[in-house]
Each structure stands twice: as structure tokens, then as C-alpha cells.
Write a structure and sequence with these properties.
The structure is a homodimer of 181-residue chains. The first copy, chain A, has seven helices and five strands; from the N terminus they run E-H-E-H-H-E-H-E-H-H-E-H. A five-stranded parallel β-sheet of chain A has the order 2-3-1-4-5, sandwiched between helices. Chain A has helices at residues 17-30, 40-46, 55-73, 88-96, 110-116, 121-126, 157-170, and strands at residues 5-10, 35-38, 78-81, 101-107, 148-151.
């Protein structure tokens, strides 16, 4: 049975966390791993209804995701979180509760994100129609020592995926793709 | 790899849910299963801080436990809930989200519980010092068709455990104890 761990994506809205989480989840399942993706929206529905976007509520939300990831990871599942998780201290608190924790900083300049603005959220945040938007009028604290940084403005999702899988193999979190399981 | 399912204990405070949950968890682990016990207190700390004991808050708490049990169960874990879970509709809602769900009604007359009163809670509830206490001034809705009823005022925890394991084997949730895994 494969060993579980938590794969934690962090980054601004629209940077590509969910896209990369989906791609890696698909590939890891194909390789025979058990995988669960906890994205921000699903978790807000099931674990954190009623919480808002104050620092305290965001922290509570991330702690809950961390708790569920830990339960899954210690039972052999690769638990993937794709929430913004803007605060370094809380991410590190979650990390400290894990035996195996792999943090991926999904990095993209705010200028690129406001230009792309797939969901139109940055425009609204800049216009003041959404308050407390991470990166605009709410903080985002970059990880200091993430296991991997992917820069989504200069590499494609497939390139990020390949680098991520390579690093997971190299660090012994998963078997090399050619290996028999 | 063994298949996961959710083993859901329901019953009044002090009826013996946690005792039986611990015993069965220990035995199932001994037999090689992956097991997680979500008891009421642990979950209130990690998933439901800030929730009170109104019907709405109790329902939210139980839905969260149900969600986490489902994530674990579909990944091969035996997820055990030992929360009071007083409302039938919410238990049935959680059941409906599961492929495999085994409900154990831990039954004990309120008279026996108030006599034992290990934690002194019934005395306080009867004196009005605790409000909204299940079975005293807050409802408890017995399951109509639980997979098993254990009556903790007429059988020992070991007897309940033996009956529970027998039923789990009989229903195909776990292999017979003599079988090789």
C-alpha cells in the first residue's frame, strides 16, 4: 500500500492551483495512488459554511483543511489542498502536524493575474466591489522554503506537472513513473 | 487492500459510544484495518470550534463528521463516529451519502444514565445548570432501523463488542476473524 502525504498548493486566486491540482491528481490516480483533492470551494461548503474572509475565519478554514488532509495522509491517501492559504504561519502550523508535507508555491505576478482575470474577480476587487481580496487589499505571504515553486506565467500546466512529478519522485514521495508498484 | 466503510455510533451521553468505539477500533486495527475514530470532542476542536448546541449547530457538526467519514471510507478506511448525533434526519442524510454505512444504536435507559452519571452532567442538566442537554431538555431521536442495537445496561462492553464484530463479519463489512487477510 502506498504511503500517504499532503500536497499543499498555495498561491493567489487564478494562479493555477486548481488546474495543477487536478492534473497531478489524475496522474497520481493513474499510477495507482489514492488521492483526494480538497479545493477551497468544496471545503467551504462542507466544512466551513458560515465562515467569512477575515484573517481569523481564513485561518480556521485552513486549519480544518489541514486537519482533514492529515487524517487522509496518515491513512495512505495523497491529500491535495488547493486553497489560497495566504498566511505563512498557518501553513507552517499545518505542516508541523504532518509527517510528510510537500508545499508547492504556485507563483504568478499580480499584474498577469489582473490581466487574465478569468473570473472577473480582480476587476471587482480593484473597483472595491469585493473587499478583502487576497493580493489586492488582503495580504498574501509567500512561502519562504516551499518544496517547489511553479511559475505559471512562464510555464504551461503540463510543464509544471512534469516538474512537480519529478520532484515528488526525487524526494521519494512517489515511485518513479517507470517503476512497478 | 480492505474496503472502507463508516461505523456510526449514536446514543445518549454516557451510554457507552466512546468505550465501544475504542474497543472496536483496537480490534479492527489488530486485524489489519486502517481505522480512524472521530469522537465528538475531537471533532468539536478541529472542525466545529465556535458551534454551539442548537439544533442547527448540532446538525452542522454532524454533517461535517459525516463528510470526513465519507472521505475516509471511500479511501479504504474504517471511519468511526462516536458523536451523540441526536437527530434522525441528519443521520439518514449522512447515510445517504455513503456506499457503506453501519449504524449502531448504543441504547441505555435515561434512568440508568442519570444514576451512573459518570461525568456529573445529568445532575447538572436536571438542575438546569446545563441547558439543551440531550435526553433531558433536548431531543434524542432513536434510529428506526439501525444495523445493530447494543443495550449497555444489560450487556458488558466486551459482549457488545463481540456482537458488533459478529454482525460486521456476517454483513460482509469485515472478514471473519479466523480468515487470513
Amino acid at each position: 500500500m502506498s504511503e500517504g502525504f499532503t500536497l499543499w498548493f498555495t498561491g493567489l486566486s487564478g494562479a493555477g492551483k486548481s488546474t495543477l491540482a487536478s492534473l497531478v491528481a489524475e496522474e497520481l490516480r493513474r499510477r495507482g495512488h489514492r488521492v483526494e483533492v480538497l479545493d477551497g470551494d468544496e471545503v467551504r461548503t462542507n466544512l466551513s459554511k458560515g465562515l467569512g474572509f477575515s484573517k481569523e475565519d481564513r485561518d480556521t478554514n485552513i486549519r480544518r483543511i489541514g486537519y482533514v488532509c492529515r487524517l487522509l495522509a496518515r491513512n495512505g491517501v495523497i491529500a491535495i489542498s488547493a486553497a489560497i492559504s495566504p498566511y505563512r504561519a498557518i501553513r507552517d502550523e499545518v505542516r508541523a502536524q504532518h509527517d510528510q508535507f510537500f508545499e508547492v508555491f504556485v507563483k504568478c505576478p499580480i499584474e498577469t493575474l489582473t490581466e487574465r482575470d478569468v473570473k472577473g474577480l480582480y476587476r471587482k476587487a480593484l473597483a472595491g466591489e469585493i473587499k478583502g481580496f487576497t493580493g489586492i487589499d488582503d495580504p498574501y505571504e509567500e512561502p519562504l522554503r516551499p518544496e517547489l515553486v511553479v511559475e505559471t506565467h512562464i510555464e504551461t500546466p503540463r510543464q509544471s506537472l512534469a516538474r512537480l512529478l519529478g520532484r515528488l519522485e526525487q524526494a521519494g514521495y512517489i515511485a518513479p513513473s517507470g517503476a512497478r508498484r
